[in-house]
Amino acid sequence: xxxxxxxxxxxxxxxxxxxxxxxxxxxxxxxxxxxxxxxxxxxxxxxxxxxxxxxxxxxxxxxxxxxxxxxxxxxxxxxxxxxxxxxxxxxxxxxxxxxxxxxxxxxxxxxxxxxxxxxxxxxxxxxxxxxxxxxxxxxxxxxxxxxxxxxxxxxxxxxxxxxxxxxxxxxxxxxxxxxxxxxxxxxxxxxxxxxxxxxxxxxxxxxxxxxxxxxxxxxxxxxxxxxxxxxxxxxxxxxxxxxxxxxxxxxxxxxxxxxxxxxxxxxxxxxxxxxxxxxxxxxxxxxxxxxxxxxxxxxxxxxxxxxxxxxxxxxxxxxxxxxxxxxxxxxxxxxxxxxxxxxxxxxxxxxxxxxxxxxxxxxxxxxxxxxxxxxxxxxxxxxxxxxxxxxxxxxxxxxxxxxxxxxxxxxxxxxxxxxxxxxxxxxxxxxxxxxxxxxxxxxxxxxxxxxxxxxxxxxxxxxxxxxxxxxxxxxxxxxxxxxxxxxxxxxxxxxxxxxxxxxxxxxxxxxxxxxxxxxxxxxxxxxxxxxxxxxxxxxxxxxxxxxxxxxxxxxxxxxxxxxxxxxxxxxxxxxxxxxxxxxxxx
Length: 586
Fold this sequence. Notes:
The protein has helices spanning about 10-60, 115-120, 145-150, 165, 190-200, 220-230, 235-250, 290-295, 325-335, 360-370, 385-395, 410-420, 450-455, 460-465, 470-490, 505-525, 535-540, 565-580, and strands at about 70, 80, 135, 205, 215, 265-270, 300-305, 310-315, 340-350, 370-375, 395-400, 420-425, 450. With about 575 residues, the chain is of the alpha/beta class. Among the domains are: about 115-315 and about 505-525 and about 535-540 and about 565-585, no CATH class; about 335-490, Glycogen Phosphorylase B (Rossmann fold, 3-Layer(aba) Sandwich). The strands form three sheets. A six-stranded parallel sheet has the order 4-3-5-6-7-8. Strand 9, helix 10 and strand 10 form a beta-alpha-beta unit. Helix 6 (about 220-230) runs antiparallel to helix 7 (about 235-250) and helix 9 runs antiparallel to helix 15. Residues about 1-20, about 45-110 and about 580-585 have low confidence and may be disordered.
């Protein structure tokens, strides 16, 4: 049996201890080396890598103006840069690979607050892309309060009944069979303010997001406002609401997007009611359209100024306000089938106090002709004040004479075209330079033009002039007039047309196109350095792509009167327009 030894020799113990210590030192060195490399890698990827990422953000313009914001001052050429960052305070990673120079500029398209709105045009799946309208929520003193005080809106006319039915007025009964059974109202010719605003409530692309708005609507009843104070009030009272409005608007963030150049409002009156040139108490109207802020906005009026760029003509309201497409189609078909027994007709009164008026000569010619129908208007009871009598005469006439009224334009022109009657104009300012959004620029397609001097000085025969038009041409012109009807009427604000575009739709789209073009011009750096405001009427006649104007055959019609005379003439026209409202007393 083998015995277990009682002990171990010292030499053997030392040998074994030496082996154990050697293994421990080796493990310690391996762990120390691994820890060092781990620290080095952490430092490289976490600390230096983080700085590189920060730098890449600052160098990448796609991430927007993070540390170098740029403030835009409307005109593309005027830029203000923020102070540059002191790059010496930033720790640079050692010798970065492919480092690009740090850019201090942001792509120009990022500088404009309306870029998002323009981008909606590119979204083909959005039916409202590029068409969104932002409506300002004005305090009620600028609109609804005026309707509550409707008796004060006119010196001679009780406007309360005309503000009913969303501004259309009381319904007209079709006793004589002149109208359709529905859709006809006794609409006041100056009620566009409220009609347009109510139509806007039915617009299919309204938005509360100002960043995507193609334009901004200001529902201020400018026409009703001035109507309250034209007679017997000082200029401070006349200007009060206008000044209050621009003060309110300029405080809104939406105004800052383009300084008001993307804003528009509607005034159902002629432009001269808003263009007082002086601070004399005897001068006419208020100065809304001469306020600096208002000069940036677009104002839609029933008669615009040929010499100013901030107002645009829209149709006077007629008596017809269709609720659906079928109402329009049925009316058009009916106008095509009518037998028209009169070659031409005229509804109106002479202007004996105006030596430049040709109305007296037109009335004389009509009285002498066997093919002319005359409806004389005066201050007494007259069929001129009966919508049924007026429309019946226009429906039985091939041509309807439309000389200047108290100013360039007349509501009668739109009533005539609604009846399928070819208008005869004597001054280009009565339609051709006014309603360029709604009427063809080639006026010979739908109207006849006889210069005033041909009547005033040469006394040409209107009957002979109209007889020269061939039956074939006559048919084409009449069809053109009838086809224009949808874009000349304002649909019932309480309903909606399915496919047709009415006067409201045409006007809103024209404003959107105007603002969109302006925004694109700003981005592309286009400027109108050669624009001459007194030639505004010429610019309105330019075709797409044209920018320059020159001499025009209508220059004699628009030679601007001398200073003083201009204000006197326009103010007198506006006063006469108001005086003749007495004929519509109710």
